[in-house]
Write a structure and sequence with these properties.
Number of domains: 1
CATH superfamily: ACP-like
Shape: globular
CATH architecture: Orthogonal Bundle
Distance between the termini: 14 Å
CATH topology: Non-ribosomal Peptide Synthetase Peptidyl Carrier Protein, Chain A
Strand content: under 5%
Number of strands: 0
Order of helices and strands: HHHH
Structural class: mainly alpha
CATH class: Mainly Alpha
Largest sheet: none
Length: 83
Amino acid sequence: MTRYPPEPPGREEVVTILAKLGDRTPDDVTEQIGSLEVAWLISEVEQQYHVTLELSDETLAQMVTISGAVATLADLLSGVPDG
């Protein structure tokens, strides 16, 4: 049985999403995330979860590393209601 919504993306999934930008391998993705990568990640997560995330400047600032993005997305998506 598939859980809806799916679990928030973990580190491996975030790296995989970021690797798709620029057709990179996961090994090519660095811990630091640039603004274009953050925008890509948010867009991909919004599509996967069928939500629109309302992100403050403070929240975006927490997403400048993979670790920060994983933690922030977990916090944001914990409030997504079950379908």
